[in-house]
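Entry for the shared binder. Reason: the reviewer on the internal report wants the predicted structure included alongside the sequence.
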Amino acid sequence: MQNELDGKFLLSVFGKIEKHGNAVNNELGAGFVLDGITVNSGFDGYEVYFSDGKVQLTLGFHNKWHSDAANEADMDAFVAQLKKINRNY
């Protein structure tokens, strides 16, 4: 499922979480949470962060992304949740 991620998709999901989610404060600062996915943006606006508590994904400059998942099942569930948010909002 990781191959299905690209910058345009991730930014679309980020915008939907920001628009429809609830404001939160966490270790990264102010952010938003929707359906179990938390998003934050970097202090300079060049990076955005996604997390579900198991997977941390960072989208950086030039739409390059990096994920930190313990296993493929966690990553697959994370991507499925991103798709669900993108589809439902």
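Summary line for the report: Helices lie at 7-20, 72-88.
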